[in-house]
Amino acid sequence: MLDAAPTEESLLEVNNIEVIYNHVILVLKGVSLSVPKGGITALLGGNGAGKTTTLKAISNLLHSERGEVTKGSIVYKGERVQDLEPAALVKRGVIQVMEGRHCFEHLTVEENLMTGAYTRSDGKAAVERDLEMVYDYFPRLKERRKSQAGYTSGGEQQMCAIGRALMSRPDTILLDEPSMGLAPQLVEQIFEIVKAVNEGEGVSFLLAEQNTNVALRYAHRGYILENGRVVMDGPAQELRENPDVKEFYLGMSDEGRKSFRDVRSYRRRKRWLA
Amino acid sequence: MAILNEIFITPFVDMAEAPDFLMQVLWEGLVSGVLYALIALGFVLIYRSSRIFNFAQGIMVVFAALTLVGLHAMGVPAWISVALTLAVMFVLAVSIERVVLRPLVGQPDIILFMATIGITLFLIGLGEIIFGGENKVMITEELGIPTGDTVLEPFGGLLILQHLDITVVVVATVLVVGLLAFLNYTRMGRAIRALGDDHQAALSVGISLQTIWVLVWFIAGIIALVTGIAWGARAGVSFALEVIAYKALPVLMLGGLESITGAIVGGLMIGMLEKLFEIYWGQPLLGGNTETWFAFVLALVVLLFRPQGLFGERIIERV
């Protein structure tokens, strides 16, 4: 899976950011990461680790939820972007696909896709071409183009959300929890498409995922978040073979099944939590 | 028995005996109905794109009409006054977005609703300071709105159509059709509908809340001006005009707050039903003046059976 090599060039740099909600709740306590151009980067971790917050900090959707970046910097293509409106970021090529899909449910699938092109000014013909491009990646969406998005299945909505993001002609897609609530087979299908888009269109991905197993199979590089900090990072291959990751995130262990009594000693051995 | 007879038999006998009069009643109802529908549309647009119930819609009608009449009184030619009034409504939309809505983003709906009450009070004050509180006459003739009437003779009877009313119906219809086309077939229109469905997602694809809000408030301003001219021409321009916006409330209850079709059908239905009820039931049985409350009672009855209104958006729920 590691053949589509990301380049060395870094597209997005997140340097030691801190995020506070409502002026009091400290959610990210210094997260740094870098997204290389043309790569798929995975952001892993359990519930409440700060994956979604990290993505929203980058896409600047935090403001409408009363959150703000109080420390650190976010740099995209050499430009500091953390004070921009989400719309300005979309114009620069960064778009987020939110957790739980968030399709416009009373719009048809095709209208949903067209809203993705809202910020574009390169003419109708180019938008039409990209619509066909999206339908090539997601033939299922073409079949359902006239259906109201609210009545399509979870998998179709996820496709619709990714397709909508693609319509903005992005360089980077921030993909939040694409596997959420989908059958394993569909998850695999969605990730295959992500890979195809990555290779075919050269779009870089930063994806937050709880499904560590799938994410590490498709990603080139991974970061593991816990309690608002990056506790481990490295090439996906290395992470997959790391014994701690295996134990805590992939549910595999060399020593066979442990009893519940040993959980406490598991915790002590999590050395990256220092 | 007599009372039942008067409720269930006599009105229909009257209708059948004088079909020309029935048509006259329906026509009058249609004219008010078109205006109710137009105002309700203004509410629906703002509600769908920002979940704000815009209490200020009524005063915007008054304010637009006052500005138009006031400008003309200062010696500005009629059509230039219209253009200037539109500009004023645009400035109003921009200021409301800047000063009121933007700082309140993400606050609960009720707070935004309270803010629109604030806007109402502010506009009442501002209107009175600038234009004074006395009644004024709409500049109907100066705007070239025909004031004559056409007399038709269907079924050998008599049907009088005021040219003013015909103009109102035509203009309102054009406005509604234009608005529908705008919402369904343009990039901006799609963005307005998208924003109504999911704020966060709209933000995420780069739709700017600010732009859309200014746009919908400006559209509400245009609607306010048209309604202000139409109603002002029939009843004079005063702060009492505000009441016609409250007539849009039962329309919204009936049609559903999110539904554009609902606003149109609801408006026409209420306009015609309240006239019919007034003429055939209200005046003979209840001493008349039922138009002030009929629409509200009708809406109440509908809400008992369909809480989302007749055309409210079906709440899409997947399991």
TrEMBL record, chain A:
Bilayer-spanning residue ranges: none
PROSITE patterns on file: ABC_TRANSPORTER_2
GO biological process, one term: L-amino acid transport
Source species, domain of life: Bacteria
InterPro entries per UniProt: AAA+_ATPase, ABC_transporter-like_ATP-bd, BCAA_Transport_ATP-bd_LivF, P-loop_NTPase
Keyword entries, A-Z: Amino-acid transport, ATP-binding, Nucleotide-binding, Transport
Similarity annotation: Belongs to the ABC transporter superfamily.
Name of the protein in its database record: Branched-chain amino acid ABC transporter, ATP-binding protein
Organism, scientific name: Salipiger mucosus DSM 16094
Lineage: Bacteria, Pseudomonadati, Pseudomonadota, Alphaproteobacteria, Rhodobacterales
Automatic annotation (TrEMBL), chain B:
A GO molecular-function annotation: transmembrane transporter activity
Protein name stated in the entry: Branched-chain amino acid ABC transporter, permease protein
GO cellular component, one term: plasma membrane
One GO BP annotation of this record: amino acid transport
Coiled coil region boundaries: none
InterPro entries: ABC_transp_permease (IPR001851), BCAA_transport_permease (IPR052157)
Membrane topology recorded in Swiss-Prot or TrEMBL: Multi-pass membrane protein
